[in-house]
Amino acid sequence: MMQPNKHVYMACEATFEEASTVIYGAPFDGTVSNRPGTRFAADAIRSESYGLETYSPYLNKDLEDVQIMDSGDVDITIGNKVKVLEELEATAREILKADKLPFMIGGEHLVTLGPFRAVHEKYPDVVLVQLDAHTDLRDDYMGEPLSHATVVRRIHDITGDGGIYQYGIRSGTKEEFDWSDTHTTLEKFSINTLKDLPDLLKDTPVYVTIDLDCLDPSIFPGTGTPEPGGLTYKELEPAFKVFEQLNVVAADIVELSPPYDASGVSNAVAAKVARELMLAITK
Amino acid sequence: MMQPNKHVYMACEATFEEASTVIYGAPFDGTVSNRPGTRFAADAIRSESYGLETYSPYLNKDLEDVQIMDSGDVDITIGNKVKVLEELEATAREILKADKLPFMIGGEHLVTLGPFRAVHEKYPDVVLVQLDAHTDLRDDYMGEPLSHATVVRRIHDITGDGGIYQYGIRSGTKEEFDWSDTHTTLEKFSINTLKDLPDLLKDTPVYVTIDLDCLDPSIFPGTGTPEPGGLTYKELEPAFKVFEQLNVVAADIVELSPPYDASGVSNAVAAKVARELMLAITK
Amino acid sequence: MMQPNKHVYMACEATFEEASTVIYGAPFDGTVSNRPGTRFAADAIRSESYGLETYSPYLNKDLEDVQIMDSGDVDITIGNKVKVLEELEATAREILKADKLPFMIGGEHLVTLGPFRAVHEKYPDVVLVQLDAHTDLRDDYMGEPLSHATVVRRIHDITGDGGIYQYGIRSGTKEEFDWSDTHTTLEKFSINTLKDLPDLLKDTPVYVTIDLDCLDPSIFPGTGTPEPGGLTYKELEPAFKVFEQLNVVAADIVELSPPYDASGVSNAVAAKVARELMLAITK
Amino acid sequence: MMQPNKHVYMACEATFEEASTVIYGAPFDGTVSNRPGTRFAADAIRSESYGLETYSPYLNKDLEDVQIMDSGDVDITIGNKVKVLEELEATAREILKADKLPFMIGGEHLVTLGPFRAVHEKYPDVVLVQLDAHTDLRDDYMGEPLSHATVVRRIHDITGDGGIYQYGIRSGTKEEFDWSDTHTTLEKFSINTLKDLPDLLKDTPVYVTIDLDCLDPSIFPGTGTPEPGGLTYKELEPAFKVFEQLNVVAADIVELSPPYDASGVSNAVAAKVARELMLAITK
Amino acid sequence: MMQPNKHVYMACEATFEEASTVIYGAPFDGTVSNRPGTRFAADAIRSESYGLETYSPYLNKDLEDVQIMDSGDVDITIGNKVKVLEELEATAREILKADKLPFMIGGEHLVTLGPFRAVHEKYPDVVLVQLDAHTDLRDDYMGEPLSHATVVRRIHDITGDGGIYQYGIRSGTKEEFDWSDTHTTLEKFSINTLKDLPDLLKDTPVYVTIDLDCLDPSIFPGTGTPEPGGLTYKELEPAFKVFEQLNVVAADIVELSPPYDASGVSNAVAAKVARELMLAITK
Amino acid sequence: MMQPNKHVYMACEATFEEASTVIYGAPFDGTVSNRPGTRFAADAIRSESYGLETYSPYLNKDLEDVQIMDSGDVDITIGNKVKVLEELEATAREILKADKLPFMIGGEHLVTLGPFRAVHEKYPDVVLVQLDAHTDLRDDYMGEPLSHATVVRRIHDITGDGGIYQYGIRSGTKEEFDWSDTHTTLEKFSINTLKDLPDLLKDTPVYVTIDLDCLDPSIFPGTGTPEPGGLTYKELEPAFKVFEQLNVVAADIVELSPPYDASGVSNAVAAKVARELMLAITK
């Protein structure tokens, strides 16, 4: 008998019970109810994934050999940031409770706050490893404490000093950079010190968040705030081998905005980052 | 427990058993295995449908009130026209056997031949009602009998004279137009005589095929062969009221090529045509 | 001595004191702080206006002969709908207080609520004349009372029955259409009865809001929710002669989203609508 | 033996000697030496023509039945308007001398002045029939007498009153419209009176110039100055039957700017206009 | 007397007799007869070549100093892979017979098989040097032995082990990579060992095939299957100096798909690769 | 009281009197009066600047700490190169006279000649430091001495040998490269020797001109003549620290063509280059 159409990331066809890792989309990009940007990212990545192979010659691993489920996009309350974060937190909690790894596809960067809370609940010593162009360390953005420009500051509210590792940062206010001097570990412009993390963190639970705008706009034009001077894809690739060696307990990729790249290359990049990251962290 | 991501046309969430109409995609556009055109149409229409309402103020009907299932795209053998047509025929046959109405989203126009064969098997007196910019009546196209430029001629091979009704035609060779004079019913440039069909056909089983390039490229640029001088959307809308009065036993819409319209308007048009057509013919 | 760069709608170079009409932009499209859609509309319209002439052969009027000031975009609190509406209300109030006509360029349609409040304060019998594809009459949208899908319902909260005139509507839920039967004056699909308004309304103060998606997506693809079956530009043009005969005390045009139309045609359309509307209503 | 690649409008493969009509491109759009706009029009039209049929069901004529040669683009002196016009004049003169009909594909509208001079030399009583959105009647444009905004005024310098017939005009300064009252025949907004020309002009030699922006930007977005409110393609089509009945001795189509329409629809429109116009006027 | 329009790669104006190298296009991308992708590549490269100089400062060579003919696109049988390959083989054979070097512009990568057969006929010890993102070593693709995903495997059928040199490969199935271990020479991710070829191959006849997707999608988005992590243009440039030192007897560049890059940059890249490659290998 | 809309580069809100640096746009790209390319660059850069921060972590400087005025675009005489250059010269002279630093945003590269003359008048020993893909050293371009392809040759007419420093050059005729051997200092393909300039030039007055096509088309597709093989943004960034150490008395950035990059990335790059360059040279 015919079945309703499924639309999942390539080869991620495990059931919830079988799965080690569970994908969920966070189609949040503000209060407008149609069209603008990152809300379409997870869907675009699913579609684009079929242009890739399941096998990664970089990691010598294959999606066919691991158990991943794609649960689709979370049904969020458009236009209500507070509720959206709660809904994403609940989704991550459900996955964590079943001892699986939550893998979120944003959405704007603010969405990271939701699942991070659920992860922190289960792993109180969890640290954030962030690849990003922007510090996201403002205390408020035009008076607003919840914003994609403040999200890492909000996470610092949870972890305190020593809990935030930032890489590839090339944009922020002077105040943000100054603040990071005493409150976070931050590498400007590159990710060279990322490889020191396995020694440093050992078995510490890690939440990996990749704001895809850490990549240079040449390879990733489809994002809300393109910032020239970022990573090439080749410069990013070694990060996945580092993540293989960490105790990653949750991850996300955020800030793909498909409408801004008609060529579709940004979608392909995001789909490949998703593959590599899932292969690196799925047990 | 979490479920795998579904991706169906808005509100078309019936099970196969419940459904009166069953949607299936025909992602066929030749032998290239990634990217080119119409293969992405059904997926694009599903995504875009969520920008519409379920209610049609034209027909005063609502998708919430009918039972439709979206079975996804048929898994076709890329690059093998003969097999693809067999696969689409088999899908249509399965739906017809369960006494449901098959609703196909192409794909290039050649795909119509597959389900038409299955429909003709069940309804030997079925006729084709075609809205199109092109005659599609060539006997062969550069030596090839199976092509989007010959598809209606191939269907005529099955129905014989009296079985083909063509509307909105504005492009073809002189030979095609001449041939149509004695073998098909053809209205050039417009669809004014479409409204006579209910009286003419009464209960005759009808296969409706809408090549979306019957619409003017102003409203439908996203197609393989844009032909200026077509229908406005408003000029097309009354066709759905005509289809309501016919004994439509199968239908399709074809030739949306999403990559050629970055604005997304062509997707929105195709999604709306799908809604109106499904509402018109679903019992 | 050199002056800072000004950027105003073509020929709208009056001072505030001189001006009869004052343009202000409402760059609101949700909480995302960069890129998405309608927030860029007013700026795009200003730039595009220089591709037009100041003279309208339709109205036989010239922008050179009237006094209009372009005050730029209001400095809004991104991501806070309630405050944004207050800020727009305050701007309109300042203009009205000086006995000038406020002319707003949105932004998403929700923005209309702000200035409408200020207008209603000065003219308690003001009515809304709306050209739109969508009813915008939901009482709430996914639980949220303030939304572009509810804005006209919110304005009805202020005016009560008899205060809302809707034209060109071709999309909405069945509930919205049913509700409009007893609470608003609504013409479906076209604007033929618009010409009856001068006789009907006489000197009643009128707020004109043009949701540019009343136009067909063929001529106006650059919008958030394209809905096929709308007005051609030629079908819209007579509306401006009707507005000439009404006592229009405020006006806006909304829902241009420049990023969705790379060809720039939507910007040109919006700029021309702005010219015609300003010429029609400026004393 | 293999031959160098030819690139001609579909089916226009006559030799110069055989040809009744000779196509030449005028790739002029100012002094920039790469990329900007209309200079690429003729090449784009040639490529796009292969998406059409050679047969026109409107005119019941076929390019296979007439003799047309495509001589390619004239080798112009970039950035020197005076010389460019001389070069285009010389090309037209060579074609006219051989008693063939020159058919130019612009380029910006200024290019019409060059061939018009050559035509006037051979046919001193030639009149201009212009389809356009803009009057092009300024005496100078920012001090400059040679401009696409002055070209018809320059042609009036040659023909004097009674020599200019303008249709579809919907943009200009008040001065231009006023001037036209006494110096040209001008129909605003539409082309309804075009059908009176055969009776009026009888055998008078006619130069037909179609500024493609006479079409609405919905169907023709790829142009330098889109002006909403223009002709649909269907409204333009009858013009070709009128041209069939005139003594057309030269023609051009101008102002296609391919880079501004990524969908390629504008190219398709221009190619179809070229086919219809060539079929209408080629003996 | 005026001549029909020629359209050749910049400065490639030799006659067949004069020419050392002969360009021919292979506009094959499947069975769809209009629009999709790579079939438009050769034409786009010809047009774009005029934005380059004839002189290469990298190779210190000038197209003005060599004799190249551009014979246009081969007239292929659309939708029939077997025939298309025969037609391309015949074209290459004709060029080789005249002791000239065939230079093909694809088309999808499958096209390489045609001319390779002709080259192998003349030079039985010919080897393939391939730059590519993908292995193209599948034995069949969804049951189909002739596909762009199998083309190098088909060529291996002809050359046997030792005849295939692959560089820059970053995508394939695990099976393909494993198979290459014993059957081809393959460098993953980069082309560093390419410079060893002159010593290794000495005078062995070489067929060079450049799948342009070996380049990173940042610089080459206009291709069917963008795969992040590829070469920058600067990383590719030294390859041409290597090719200068090999006994190259035929070459091609494939997989440019102009519709997928509205910016035109991919066309410019392909045109420059063509210039450098032709300068490197033309005697 | 409300003020007319200002549109200035982010944070460049000084008055003329306060300003150390004055921005002015040169919207020149030939004689076409609407739409084509670089004329829209300055406006696009102003808009895009608001996506950046005012603080540069590279230079550790902030626009908030310097005094810059944005005077808008110069009101040029379209289509008259000679006059345009005079107008730009006059603007630069006015700024220099007030002992401020002129900072021009082009426009095509020819515009540099205008302000260079004014700078040379005040600083007769001024030298040109040029970052570019192209030599721009032709003596004439198709007979025309004033062109974007000849602009540096014209500046050499003023400075004589020893006055021109060229970096990143990767395109030109053989004659241009040969000529540069004896007349200019030219580094091919890279900008490695730029860092020697402070020692070499010491206090010599310097005019910096950055043709943005020195950047690779991967990061800067939005330009008239994309030339693969250019600088990454990271490779360009150190140049700004070099400029900090020079006695820069005037500067410009040229050749951004916004219409050719729908993603907006080129605008973002140009805006960031402007920020860095202004921070580097403003005292």
Descriptive account of the structure:
Six copies of one chain form a homohexamer. The longest helix of chain A has 17 residues, at 81-97. Chain A has helices at residues 41-49, 81-97, 113-122, 151-159, 174-183, 197-201, 233-245, 265-281; strands at residues 21-26, 55-56, 61-62, 68-73, 101-106, 127-131, 164-169, 185-188, 205-211, 247-254. The first copy, chain A, has one domain: Arginase, Chain A (3-Layer(aba) Sandwich), CATH 3.40.800.10. Mean pLDDT of chain A is 94; it is low at 31-35. With 283 residues, chain A is an alpha/beta fold. Chain A binds chain B through residues 1-8, 13, 15-17, 22, 24, 34-35, 40, 43, 46-47, 50-51, 69-73, 94-95, 262, 264, and chain B through 1-8, 13, 15-17, 22, 24, 34-35, 40, 43, 46-47, 50-51, 69-73, 94-95, 262, 264.
Give me the number of helical elements of chain A. Answer: 8
* Estimated share of beta-strand residues of chain A: 15-25%
Shape of chain A: globular
Order of helices and strands of chain A: EHEEEHEHEHEHEHEHEH
Biggest sheet character of chain A: 8 strands, parallel
Strand order of the largest sheet of chain A: 4-1-5-10-9-6-7-8
CATH topology of chain A: Arginase, Chain A
Radius of gyration of chain A using CA atoms only? 17 Å
Give me the CATH superfamily of chain A. Ureohydrolase domain
- The span between the termini of chain A is 34 Å
Task: Report the oligomer.
Answer: homohexamer
Assigned CATH architecture of chain A = 3-Layer(aba) Sandwich
Helix content of chain A: 25-40%
Top CATH class of chain A: Alpha Beta
Number of strands of chain A: 10
Mean pLDDT over the full residue set of chain A: 94
